[in-house]
Design goal:
The protein has about 2000 residues and is mainly alpha-helical. It is built from 45 helices and 8 strands. Strands 1, 2, 3, 4, 5, 6, 7 and 8 form an 8-stranded antiparallel sheet that branches.
């Protein structure tokens, strides 16, 4: 390469000469040289040659550069191969550690090696990629591509081998660690078991209940610890078995250790179970004793209570005693179970405790005491109940006699009254008296029952009780007779008075009904009036049906009373005659009223039905015409159901439609006053609407049905796809099992799976067929159906192929597994049978029948299984043919099976021959031999049967003799059967002769036995009679004599065990004597009775009695004496035993501690030290045992035992041994600790030296990198290496030095060696640090140079990228919105601002590098710098031009979009105004008004947006934008639309207020009319009362009416006031307004004549008829809708007069109601009274203060209520009536906007001052200087000069600081930082900037880390770094210049705190920026634009107050 550079320099020196030659040739050519052509040709030739030369030089340089790069890569590969070889040496080491700590250390070292391997793997991969690029070059290739590929493959192979060695090494180390961990855990478990065995051996069972419970709790805790240890031990054993299964280590030591630990654990569990059993037995005994003592104490206390003599002195005291006694009885009964349970508890005790005499005596005493308590308690309860019964009887008798005295006096003085009120009072008293008598009679019956019980029970006071009972019964009978007599008299008077009262009420009811019917005959002629009359009549008829049965009952009751009371018959029958007359009159009036309703109801009902049907038809047409399309199945079903419901509704209304048609035909035929033309028009519309509705429904149904079917298809497709995905997943994850069962289950599962697939396939086919049907039918969604169908079909076919392939694989695998399993089964069976057939011990030679039968079964089984072998061989041959690869295993298996089968057949045949020869010969011989043996045994038994010495032996001999006789009979039968079998044997059979001899011998011996048996029976019966008397005495004497030697035994035992045995025996003897005492007493008593008889036998009995008495007394005395001696001996032997155990244990421990064993290494020493610590703890715990011995010694000395001196010497010897043992423990512990510390230090030093040597190899590497990435990678790795090495090494050096210093200070024996180790380690560490510092400096210098060149390249690339983005930004002008353009430009400028910092950093870096480098490097640095600056200036100029252009276009787009949105919103609001449903009542009007006010609020809220849009448009026009004309048109259109919106809102608000006022008036008028109608019958009534009571009642009613009328007067005044619509009508007609209720509705004559327009006709000339009822019906809310109205003619649709009222209405005419039949002269008085009432109302109206009349310029008459209704209907149908506005200053002018009307009308029933209309505020004149778009400021708004001062400017307040780890990722956009290592820095966030310092002192001094400037956080973002996985609690910080930092906090809370602080700081930056921008734009905005206030909202708040 250097030679080529010299050649290039030489050639470049010729360039000037060539240039000179060219210039000379040109000059000669210009001067006109004669040989110009030749010179030009030479010039061209020279230039061509020069170009060729330069081209060759450039090509050669390129080839050399390629070759150089390739050689560098090859050199790197050589380095990597050498490194891999070094690593392989370390990985093939066989050192696996000799103990657990060493293995852990080796694993740590191996982890470091693996980290190095993984780090170098990336480098190797990069080298391979770079090298392979050279093999793909075209043209010149610096090396053969095959060589390159070979080297790459070689490096890759070496790397893979290194990875395999590392994995193998780690596996070996893990196995070694598992082995040593297993040994350590087993040793710990063994030590724990020994400790627990010693603890259990030293425990006792306690001496009382508390001590036993304490020991039980301790034992439970130990059991819990045992359970936890068991689980740990099982885990450890399982790990040991796993180690054995791996067969990596020798199994001998592991198995021996496991066997030893299992044996110890089993022994520990046995000891634990035995100790737990002893504890449970002791606990049961002590618990039983405690419960028995408590029960005895309670029984004694209870006995004292129940045996008391106190039975009380009265009822209360006796009852209290009885309650207490019942509680005692309940307690006694509760304790019954406890007493009965004592026997069960006694049976559950241990035999030692259960057989004690004291325990049994205690139980008997408790049972006896409980029986006495229960018996006494029953007696006392009976006595208390008798006493209580007597006391209660006397108290009840006294109470009853007092009540009887009182009632007798009251009945004798009472007289029966005649008045109804007094009779009812007396009757009420008798009812209460009946209740009292019932309760008293119950008490008397109780008294009689108690008396009878007392007399029957024989009570001492029976005579006194009987006399008291008779006296009480006689007085009670006398009171009952008096009560019955008075009740009869009272009942007679009460019936007459009730009858008269009911007659009066019935008469009043009938008269009231008649008057009500007469009043309803003048009802209205409209539908409402007719319906009201019908309801009244139906109610009246129902009431009459109820009254008629009551009249019949009254008649019958009157006749009965008249018959029973003849003296008052006339008074009783007269009221019923009056009732009959009134009833007949009522029936006549009712019949007349029903006849008048028939004609008027028919017409009104038809109009109402037609009106309702038309309303329903319009609503249904709108519902059917809906175009809503469903998006899913649920919505489709919902729409379809709704559509079907509409069809059902239409079908339901079809009958109504037919009824309307029929009714219209009937009305056309009848002569009825009906507007026929109007009805025909409405009926035509009805027919057209009905047909259109049916057609629309059918069309809509078809669309919904197709959508529903399509969504059903989609649902099925989704379900099928889900099933297919599940099937594919199941097939992809299936595996082949290794057993037949597993394969069978897999096949079965796969069959189920395929069955499911087939079922799903059927479903899929159905779905596909449905999709094809939908396509054929031309469904709206046919394309989507076809796409879904194709996808489903392909997926189904793919799954079916996968399932078939898996089925084939499973079947092949099943054949193989079945063959192998059958081979294994047959081989096992053959081997088992070979053992059975070849074992000669299984054949008993003498008697082989049973083995012979077994062998026959065995041979049959062998023959059957022969086919099994043939089948297996056949299957094996087939398997060999189909799968030759398994021939070796299959042939070997078949050969083994054949050999085993041959061996089995040979063995079984030999055994069969042997058994067959012996079976037949020995069968009979064996039977006779057995028979002969039994006969011989019977003869021997017969010889032993004697006469017997006592009764027991005689009875026994008789039983034996009886059994012998039965046996002889059975043997005779058996001999006969054997003879038959012997005769059946062939003569030549072997052994037949011996059978005959045995047969004769056995028969002879059986015959000889019969006579001796009879003789022996006779002798035994005689002996039994002799010994019957004295056998019991002899038994007792023998019993006492047997136990007397035990009681007199002098041997007390020589050791503890024998003494305990003697004590137990003596205790058993004492318990036995105590239990046997009743038996001895009974025997002595019976023997004394026998001894009184004078006979020879009685003398023997008397001697036995005397002997038994003497022996019994002696036995008791000797037993007690022996017990005392044994107790004293037991204490001494127990002490000697404990002392011997302690001395033995101390001797063993002393021998162990005197051992000089030392560990060979650290692990063995640690093991010895742990064992010694366990021993030390054991010795410390043994001190309690020594103390226990000392206490026993003192107890023996205090008792004065004969061997006290010997006991004292033994105790002193034990104390000396224990003290010497503790000294030995301390001495051995010190030696082991020193040895362990020395081994530990040696290991640490060796490891540290080895580690330092490894790090020196890495730190001494000479490589400095070829480019920036390479240098950065080297520097990062070295920084991580240096940081890790420094921290880890310093810690390890410090730890080693500390250990050495501590050992030397301790005075270790090897202190000199330890000091040498310390010096060597410190020197090696210092050399390593120096070497690391040198390499760090070299890498830093190389990094700076390469970083500069890389930064220049990146900045140039970014500048070029930005320049290319500028044309794209300009091209997006017409395709994007303003916001998008501004965001794109802002993002571009932000990116450009980021480049500023990078360019400045490049300049600074170039200046620094120029001072360090010279020559070629300096020139290259300067050239790169100039290139970057030149490109940067060009980019800035282009950015400025683009920014200006984008700003202009963005403003225009934003304005046009705002105008379009506002116009669309205004159109929507205009459509909403007046589009709601017509109001029907007050609540619906108020709801519409609230909605209308909501629209106003929305308009006001949009006002600011409109003003801002207009301002923007003006600004664009003033800036002379190219689209100025278009913008001006948009502004004008926006202003016009705004004006239209406000005008339409005001008009609709005025209409809503008028409608609300009319509905409120209608509601109040209806209520007032109803009240007046209800009060008219009261005023018309002619009834004046027939008695004083009736007159007073009428006066009270009239007074109540006057009060109600006074209250209603205020409400009528409110109704007389003018409404707004009346005022408007009066102004239009120039008439004074008249309230609705003061107008007269004049009837129209049948001829249809109309009054004069001026109203000159007198009202008296026409018939006056009140029309208040018509006013009510005309103002019903449903009548205000645009429907057919009988008052108004047919409306004119769209005609010229559509907006004007009809002529009749304008002239003040009122249409007449339908003509009805007048009832005649009977109504004259009613009309007169109504006229008078109307005149009084007019007078009250004139006396009030009416509002002044208002006139306008038009003439007209009165405005009736019908006119008002018609006008409202026309407004609803065609819009508001146009009327010229009155003059501006007229006070009668209606307000033009909503602010002039109240929000809602007040209630007319509570007139107040606020209910009067308020005058509207006069508008202020507009300021001429005010701009057109400026709204006026409200009077209440504050002046501009009084505005508060502006708020202070925002500042930075967030502060946060703390240590963080920082990693600098990027220096700019897409530019990696030069140093990307992690650094721990002190970070401070203050005043909006973030600073990085080395520590808090650096922050105080103001010196940042590395001189870095503070980081400005304007436009900075922070977030959690979720993509960074190497460290936890890391968050990312990005700044505005493109820099990026990774920061790591100490925990998550700290990270959240930093994120919150950074976010708050960024927000403060944004606020400061907005405030600064506001300051810059405020002055220009205030000067250039007019000031704008907020839009003034129209409000009615002034009227709401």
């Amino acid at each position: 390469m250097k030679k080529h550079e010299a050649i290039e320099a030489d050639i470049s020196s010729y360039q000037e000469r060539i240039q000179v030659v060219v210039e000379l040739a040109l000059e000669m050519e210009s001067e006109g040289y004669y040989d110009t052509k030749r010179i030009s040709a030479q010039k061209d030739n020279i230039l061509r040659q020069w170009g060729l030369l330069t081209e060759l030089v450039r090509a050669r340089r390129a080839r050399l550069e390629q070759n150089l790069a390739l050689q560098k890569i090859f050199q790197e590969m050589v380095y990597m191969i050498d490194w891999m070889e070094e690593m392989q040496v370390l990985l093939v080491s066989k050192d696996l550690g000799k103990h657990l700590l060493e293995v852990d250390d080796l694993l740590q070292k191996h982890g470091l090696l693996e980290a190095d391997v993984s780090a170098q793997t990336e480098r190797v991969q990069a080298l391979n990629v770079a090298a392979l690029k050279f093999s793909e070059l075209e043209g010149y290739q610096p090396c053969d591509p095959q060589i390159i590929c070979n080297r790459v493959n070689h490096v890759q192979t070496c790397l893979e081998e290194l990875g395999e060695l590392a994995g193998k090494r780690r596996k070996e180390l893990e196995d070694s660690r598992q082995l040593w961990a297993f040994f350590q855990e087993m040793e710990e478990a063994e030590a724990w078991i020994r400790e627990k065995e010693q603890i259990l051996a030293a425990k006792t069972c306690g001496r009382d209940l508390s001590s036993v419970l304490t020991l039980t709790n301790k034992h439970k805790s130990m059991l819990g610890e045992l359970g936890s240890r068991r689980a740990l031990l099982h885990q450890t054993m399982k790990r040991g078995e796993q180690i054995l299964a791996k067969k990596r280590f020798s199994p001998g030591g592991i198995q021996e250790k496991m066997r030893e630990v299992r044996l110890r654990w089993k022994k520990l569990e046995e000891v634990t179970g035995l100790h737990q059993q002893r504890l449970q037995e002791a606990l049961n005994f002590f618990q039983f004793s405690a419960e028995t003592d408590d029960l005895v104490a309670w029984l004694q206390d209870t006995y004292r209570i129940v045996s008391s003599d106190d039975f009380g002195h009265d009822d209360y005291s006796t009852q209290a005693l009885l309650r207490k006694h019942r509680a005692v009885v309940e307690e006694v009964e509760k304790h019954r179970a406890a007493v009965l349970a004592l026997r069960k508890q006694l049976a559950l005790l241990a035999p030692d405790h259960r057989q004690g005499v004291d325990v049994q005596i205690r139980v008997v005493e408790v049972e006896q005491l409980y029986g006495e308590v229960a018996e006494v308690a029953v007696l006392r309860q009976q006595w208390l109940q008798d006493a209580l019964a007597v006391y209660r009887m006397f108290s009840e008798v006294h109470a009853c006699e007092v009540w009887v005295d009182e009632k007798e006096q009251w009945l004798e003085k009472m007289e029966v009254p005649e008045e109804l009120d007094e009779v009812e009072v007396v009757q009420h008293r008798f009812e209460s008296l009946d209740q009292e008598m019932n309760s008293v009679m119950g008490r008397i019956l109780d008294v009689n029952q108690v008396v009878q019980q007392l007399v029957d029970g024989g009570h001492p006071s029976s005579e006194e009780v009987r006399s008291c009972q008779d006296h009480l019964n006689s007085r009670w009978n006398r009171v009952v007779e008096l009560v019955e007599q008075k009740k009869g008299q009272l009942s007679s008077v009460l019936k007459i008075q009730n009858y008269l009262l009911e007659c009066g009420e019935m008469k009043a009811q009938v008269r009231e009904k008649r008057k009500a019917i007469e009043a309803t005959q003048s009802g209205g002629g409209d539908l409402g009036g007719v319906l009201a009359l019908q309801r009244r009549l139906s109610t009246m008829e129902a009431a009459l049906v109820v009254l008629e049965p009551r009249l019949v009952e009254l008649q019958q009751e009157g006749e009965a009373l008249a018959a029973s009371h003849p003296g008052r018959a006339l008074e009783i029958l007269l009221p019923f005659e009056q009732i009959s007359e009134e009833w007949e009159a009522l029936k006549r009036a009712l019949q007349g009223c029903e006849d008048t309703l028939t004609v008027a109801g028919r017409l009104q009902q038809f109009i109402q039905d037609l009106d309702n049907f038309l309303g329903w038809l319009v609503k249904t047409q709108a519902a059917v015409a809906s175009e809503e399309v469903p998006d899913n199945l649920t919505e489709a079903e919902r729409l379809l159901n709704q559509h079907a419901a509409l069809k059902e509704e239409i079908d339901g209304y079809e009958e109504d439609y037919a009824k309307i048609q029929a009714a219209s035909d009937l009305l056309a035929l009848e002569e009825t006053e009906v507007p026929y033309l109007s009805l025909q028009q409405w009926l035509q519309k009805l027919d057209a609407g009905w047909g259109k509705l049916l057609r629309s429904w059918e069309t809509r149904r078809e669309v919904l049905a197709q959508a529903h079917v399509f969504h059903l298809f989609l649902r099925d497709v989704h379900q099928c796809e889900k099933n297919l995905y599940n099937q594919e997943s199941a097939l992809a994850h299936a595996e082949l099992p290794a057993t037949v069962e597993g394969v069978t289950k897999a096949i079965k599962k796969h069959k189920d799976f395929t069955t499911t697939m087939e079922l799903n396939l059927q479903k899929i086919q159905g779905v596909l067929q449905a999709g094809e049907n939908l396509q054929r039918q031309g469904n709206l969604y046919g394309d989507r159906v076809a796409e879904a169908t194709e996808g489903l079909r392909a997926k189904s076919h793919h799954n079916y192929q996968l399932a078939q392939e898996w089925t084939r694989r499973l079947e092949d695998h099943l054949d193989l597994q079945r063959f192998l399993q059958e081979c294994r089964e047959l081989d096992g069976w053959i081997r088992e049978k070979v053992l059975m057939a070849g074992d000669p011990s299984r054949d008993p030679p003498p008697r082989p029948p049973k083995p012979w039968l077994k062998h026959q079964a065995f041979m049959a089984e062998l023959a059957q299984n022969k086919e099994w072998l043939e089948k297996i061989e056949k299957e094996g041959e087939e398997l060999l043919l189909t799968k030759p690869e398994l021939s070796g295993a299959v042939r070997r298996q078949l050969e083994e099976l054949r050999q085993c089968w041959v061996e089995l057949e040979t063995t079984s045949q030999a055994r069969s021959r042997r058994l067959a020869e012996a079976a037949a010969a020995e069968r009979l011989a064996r039977s006779y031999a057995e028979m002969e043996a039994r006969v011989g045994r019977l003869e021997e038994q017969l010889e032993t049967v004697g006469a017997g010495t006592d009764l027991l032996s005689v009875n026994r001999q008789l039983k034996r003799l009886q059994s012998m006789e039965s046996q002889v009979e059975e043997w005779s039968k058996e001999v006969g059967e054997l003879q038959v079998q012997a005769a059946a044997l062939p003569a030549q059979a072997a052994g037949g002769r011996a059978v005959g001899e045995r047969q004769s011998a056995v028969g002879t011996r059986i015959v000889r036995l019969i006579e001796p048996l009879k003789e022996r029976r006779r002798i035994l019966l005689a002996s039994k009679e002799v010994h019957q008397v004295s056998h019991e005495l002899e038994d007792e004497v023998l019993w006492v004599q047997d136990r007397l030697p035990l009681a007199t035994l002098k041997d007390h035992g020589t050791n503890l065990q024998t003494v305990q045995q003697f004590i137990k025996k003596n205790q058993n003897l004492r318990r036995e004597i105590q239990v046997h005492r009743p038996r001895v007493d009974e025997v002595l008593e019976r023997a004394g009775a026998v001894a009184t008889i004078k006979s020879p036998e009685a003398e023997g009995v008397r001697r036995l009695v005397e002997r038994l008495g003497t022996l019994w007394v002696e036995l008791q005395e000797q037993t007690e004496l022996r017990q005392q001696n044994l107790d004293a001996t037991f204490q001494l032997e127990q002490y000697y035993f404990d002392v011997a155990e302690v001395e033995s244990w101390l001797g063993e421990q002393e021998l162990l501690l005197m051992s000089e064993e030392k560990g060979k290494d650290e692990q063995s020493t640690l093991h010895l030290l742990k064992k010694h610590l366990l021993m030390e703890q054991t010795v410390e715990n043994y001190e309690e045992t020594i103390a226990q011995l000392s206490r026993q010694c003192r107890a023996l000395l205090e008792l004065g035992h004969p061997q006290s001196e010997q006991v004292s010497r033994r105790q002193s010897q034990v104390d000396r041994l224990y003290v010497s043992l503790k000294d030995l423990v301390e001495e051995r512990k010190a030696k082991l600790e020193q040895q362990y510390w020395l081994y530990q230090l040696n290991r640490e030093v060796d490891e540290l030296e080895h580690w330092i040597a490894e790090k020196e190899v890495v730190a001494g590497s000479p490589e400095l990198g070829q480019d920036f990435e390479h240098v950065t990678l080297l520097q990062e790795k070295f920084l991580e290496f240096a940081s890790e090495t420094g921290s880890v090494g310093q810690e390890r050096i410090a730890a080693v030095n500390q250990m050495v210093d501590e050992l030397i200070d301790y005075g270790h024996a090897d202190a000199a060696t330890i000091a040498e180790w310390k010096d060597g380690v410190n020197e090696a560490w210092a050399d390593l640090l120096e070497l690391m510092e040198t390499r760090a400096q070299m890498l830093a210098a190389s990094h700076e140079l390469h970083k500069f060149f890389n930064d220049c390249k990146e900045v140039l690339g970014q500048i070029e990228e930005k320049r290319q983005r500028l044309p794209e930004l300009a091209a997006r002008e017409g395709r994007t919105s303003a916001g998008a353009l501004q965001r794109a430009l802002g993002a571009f400028e932000h990116d450009v601002e980021v480049l500023v910092t990078q360019v400045r950093q490049l300049q600074e870096g170039a200046a620094q590098l120029r001072t360090l480098y010279a020559g070629d490097n300096a020139e290259a640095i300067a050239g790169r710098e100039q290139e970057v600056l030149r490109a940067w200036k060009e980019l800035l100029a282009a950015c400025e031009e683009c920014r200006l252009h984008v700003a202009s276009v963005a403003d225009k787009i934003r304005f046009v979009g705002a105008v379009r949105d506002l116009l669309a919103w205004m159109d929507g609001v205009l459509c909403q105004i007046g589009a709601g449903e017509r109001p029907r009542d007050v609540s619906s009007v108020e709801l519409l008004m609230n909605d209308h006010q909501g629209l106003k609020s929305e308009i006001e809220a949009r006002g600011k947006n409109i003003a801002a849009c207009l301002e923007l448009g003006k600004t664009l026009i003033l800036s002379k934008s190219p689209a100025a004309d278009e913008i001006k048109a948009h502004v004008e259109k926006l202003l016009a639309k705004k004006k239209e919106l406000l005008e339409k809102w005001d008009k609709h608000w005025e209409w809503l207020q008028q409608t609300l006022e009319v509905h409120q008036f209608a509601q109040e008028a209806v209520v007032a009319d109803a009240w007046l109608t209800a009060q008219e019958p009261l005023l018309r009534s002619q009834e004046l009362g027939s008695s004083v009571a009736e007159v007073e009642q009428l006066l009270r009613r009239h007074e109540a009416f006057r009060k109600a009328a006074a209250a209603w007067e205020e409400r009528f005044r409110a109704l007389r006031r003018l409404t707004t619509i009346e005022k408007l009508k009066a102004e239009q007609n120039k008439q004074p307004p008249t309230p609705l209720l003061s107008r007269k509705f004049l009837g129209e004559p049948p001829g249809g004549s109309t009054p004069s327009p001026g109203g000159s006709e007198r009202p008296e000339s026409r018939r006056l008829e009140p029309r208040v009822a018509y006013v009510r019906h005309e103002l019903r809310p449903e009548r205000l809708q645009p429907k057919l109205d009988r008052v108004q003619g047919p409306p004119a649709d769209g005609g010229p007069g559509a907006g004007e009222p009809p002529p009749a209405t304008a002239a003040g005419e009122t249409p007449a109601p339908p003509k009805t039949d007048e009832p005649g002269e009977g109504r004259t008085g009613l009309l007169e009274r109504r006229r008078e009432r109307r005149e009084r109302r007019l007078e009250r109206q004139e006396s009030s203060e009416p509002e002044p009349p208002r006139h306008d310029g038009k003439g007209g008459g009165k405005a009736t209520l019908a006119d008002i209704v018609e006008q409202l209907q026309e407004k609803e149908a065609g819009g508001p009536l146009p009327a010229p506005p009155p003059p501006r200053d007229s006070p009668a002018r209606l307000p033009a906007g909503p602010e002039g009307l109240p929000e809602r009308m007040p209630r007319p029933d509570r007139p107040r001052a606020r209910d009067r209309p308020k005058p509207r505020r006069r508008p202020r004149p507009k300021d001429p200087a005010q701009g057109p778009g400026e709204t006026r400021r409200s009077r209440s708004a504050p002046a501009q000069g009084s505005a508060p001062p502006p708020p202070p400017p925002p500042t930075h307040t967030v502060q946060h600081e703390g240590f963080l780890f920082r990693k600098h990722e990027l220096d700019g956009p897409n530019k990696k930082a030069s140093n990307r290592s992690w650094v721990n820095l002190y970070c401070v966030l203050s005043k909006g900037d973030l600073g990085f310092y080395k520590d808090p002192k650096g922050h105080a001094a103001g010196s940042t880390h590395g001189g870095e400037p503070l980081l400005n956080l304007h436009h900075a973002t922070s977030e959690v770094a979720n993509d960074y996985k190497k460290k936890k609690n890391v968050f990312k910080l990005k700044t505005s210049d493109g820099s990026e930092f990774l920061l790591q906090a100490k925990d998550e809370e700290d990270m959240r705190g930093w994120l919150r602080a950074l976010a708050a700081c960024a927000q403060e930056h944004a606020e400061v920026a907005r405030w600064s921008q506001g300051l810059l734009t405020t002055s220009s905005t205030d000067e250039g634009l007019p000031r704008r206030d907020g839009d003034r909202r129209p409000s009615t708040s002034g009227r709401r107050k």
